[in-house]
Prior knowledge:
β3 (about 50-55), α3 and β4 (about 80-85) form a beta-alpha-beta unit. The chain contains five helices and five strands. By secondary structure, it is α/β, with parallel strands linked by helices. Strands 2-1-3-4-5 form a five-stranded parallel β-sheet. The protein starts with a strand and ends with a helix. The protein is globular.
Amino acid sequence: MDNRKILVVDDEADMRIFVSTVVATRGYEPVTASDGTAALDLARKEPPALVILDVMMPKINDGILTYRQFRTDGKLQRIPIIMLSALAQKTFFHSIRMLNPPRGRTIPEPQAYMEKPPDAYELIRLIDELLAAKA
């Protein structure tokens, strides 16, 4: 696992560029994906230190289902995730609860959630905080 690599997942090219630029200016190495399938493939090949994941992507619930896959994959489940979305935080957390099976393992909430558009300084603060806690 590369402790400087941050996976940025968003279907909007301008948001991927913005977040990647913010991440790179702090000295991290951004790697990008435009959907959940590509993100999971990249993460399984070379796990990143952290993931910034958009909630609303073209496929229905792509960000939410991708989040669930990260949290249930033995190799990826400990990677900190910052959810990034235009969706209100309350709505996202409700969606996560709906994905939890009644008697199964519950899916933990993400380490952080930011509404779009993200504040660059707040995003960097969250990344630094999460990576420091993980170290």
